Amino acid sequence: MLEHLLTTRHSAGLTGLPVTPYTDNLVLDAGGTRSLAEMVAASGHDGPALLLTCLWYIREVDPASLLLTGLTRDGVYLVEKGEVVGEVNNFRFNESPVGLLSRATEAGRTERTLPREWGDHFTRAAMPALRIPDFNMSSVSQGV
Questions:
Q1: Which of 4, 32, 112, 132 fits a disulfide with 108 by CB distance 3.0 to 4.6 angstroms?
Q2: Residue 14: exposed, middle, or buried by beta-carbon count in 10 A (0-12, 13-18, 19+)?
Q3: What is the pTM of this model?
C-alpha cells in the first residue's frame, strides 16, 4: 500500500510533510496462501497454461497507461493437467501492471524473490505468484 511519496529533507522543509526517504524494497502481499507448486497443480485442467518464472528487459512503452514491454527469460514452461510437462520458447510481452493486477484471478503466498532486471541494486523484494488469464504474448522471442 502506497502511504507516502518520496520526500527529501529539503522538500519536507518546504512543504511541511514528514521526511519519507527513498527505499529500495518492494513487497506485494495479496493475502494468498497457496504455494507456487499448489497453484501449478491447480492449473492446466481446462487447456494448456504457461508458467512464467522470469521477466526480463522491461521497458516503458506508454507512461499514460503504464504499458510495458519486455521478454520472458530462462523459464517458460507448459503446464497441462496440473503438471509441468516441458519448456517452451521465450516471448515478447506487452502489458500494463495495472491491467495485469485487475485481471488476476489468484495470488499465491508472498515469497522473497530477486528482481532480475536490477541485479544487485534492488535485492529486497517479495511477491506472490499470480494467476492471470490472457497474458499478452505479442510475439515469439528469438533471443536467449
A1: 32
A2: exposed
A3: 0.76
